[in-house]
Specification:
Blueprint (H helix, E strand, L loop, with lengths): L19 H8 L3 H23 L2 H18 L9 H20 L27 H9 L3 H12 L4 H8 L3 H27 L1
Helix pairs in contact: 1-2, 2-3, 2-4, 2-6, 3-4, 5-8, 6-8, 7-8
């Protein structure tokens, strides 16, 4: 039996190379540079917030708060990581803070050890219609949806997700396994209805 290989790295929608000159202009307070950064990152921030929060109005608020914080803290960015990674971290923190403030986090317990084997299964097939996938994601509990999105779409590890959500890595693994099964079932049900 061949050894299990790690899943391919995920390329985040945030992975936009920002020229140092643009950052310097933004740090200097140039409105045009801020506007360009906003335009480049508006869609990835909104999409991430929508997937985590499940609500367009809340996603718009997360976008606004994220960009305000980015602009206010731009002088603190020292370049130890890509600018997009720093901005993405602010967006994730804003979205998760909004979820925590709603106090709707579920108290799911960890799955049995055998269920964690599902973690290495690929996400639902690429043939799934994007709209059906978005609808199915919105039917999942917030914590489960957040873990699925952060892991599969943004490339966070279980340890990083656990730190972001103030949980354990096993919580992230169990949510990924459970969420993957629920998502597949929802997509299969949608496909069966479409073919009926």
């Amino acid at each position: 039996m061949p050894p299990e290989s790690a899943p391919p790295p995920v390329r985040s929608s945030f992975a936009i190379d920002v020229p140092d000159a643009l950052l310097a202009r933004a740090r200097a307070g140039e409105a045009g540079a801020f506007e360009q950064l906003y335009r480049w990152f508006e869609r990835p921030v909104f999409t991430l917030a929508l997937r985590l929060c499940g609500d367009r109005e809340e996603a718009a608020e997360v976008l606004q708060e994220t960009m305000l914080k980015v602009f206010a803290k731009l002088g603190e960015f020292r370049g130890g990581c890509p600018f997009w990674g720093w901005l993405r971290q602010i967006a994730v923190n804003e979205a998760l803070m909004r979820l925590r403030s709603r106090r709707k986090w579920e108290d799911d317990t960890a799955l049995e050890d055998h269920a964690l084997a599902d973690e290495h299964l690929p996400p639902p097939t690429a043939a799934a219609d994007a709209a059906a996938l978005a609808r199915a994601l919105m039917q999942l509990p917030e914590a489960t949806r957040s873990v699925l999105w952060l892991y599969h779409a943004e490339g966070y590890t279980h340890e990083e997700i656990a730190a972001l959500m103030a949980r354990t890595p096993s919580f992230s693994k169990s949510q990924l396994a459970r969420g993957g099964r629920r998502l597949r079932a929802l997509l299969e049900s949608t496909a069966e209805k479409a073919h009926a």
